[in-house]
Amino acid sequence: MSEAVESNRAAVLFYDSSCKACTWIAARVRAAAGSGTLRAASIDSAEGHDALACLSEADRLGSWHMLDERGVLYSAGEASILLLERTPSASLLVALAHSAPIATDTLYRAIAGRRSLWGRLVPQRCIARARQGLADQPRGTARYQPTDSADSKQGQWEHHV
After folding, report:
1. What's phi and psi for 159, nearest 5 deg?
2. Distance CA 75, CA 157 (A)
């Protein structure tokens, strides 16, 4: 993993705002993480385009992504583990996810591959509340560049202030 620039910024979850289930989950995770520790931004926002510029459109929209406080970007199952770590009530899930990262990624991809089905199960009033909550949060303006470090994992970037 690359060493990243120190930052006082909150971590950022990038999610597909056109997906009802993704929107609802993003709002729930952000709320569970606590005030100021996690923001959520649409993959299609200006911030999302900057942070995910090195990904193809299919990769950008294929999963959620999380930029941690140090400026390292994670995707899919790896992002899920980091999100669980920021959720105080998920300590058992964090332990399970860390013990089986490949299974975590496989499970994430199985769920994400059926997100339109999951979106139909979330009541419209819950989607509306989630969208409102996400709209009311502070916005970021950071710019991102790929990491040049040879030991960094594919799909991770460093945040340059």
Report:
1. -95, 125
2. 11
Q: Sketch the domain layout of the chain as residue ranges.
A: 11-146
Could you say which residues of the chain have pLDDT below 70?
Answer: 1-8, 139-161
63: its two tokens: 């999963």
Give pLDDT, residue 89: 83
In this prediction, residue 151 carries a pLDDT of 39
* Structure tokens, 85: 């770590």
CB within 8 Å of 104: residues ≥ 6 apart: 77, 80, 81, 96, 97
Residues 6+ apart with CB under 8 A from 44: 16, 17, 18
Whether the CB-CB separation of 13 and 38 falls below 8 Å is answered with: yes
DSSP secondary-structure letter at 88? G
The whole-number pLDDT of residue 9 equals: 73
State how far the alpha carbon of 55 is from the alpha carbons of 49, 50, 78, in Å: 9, 10, 16
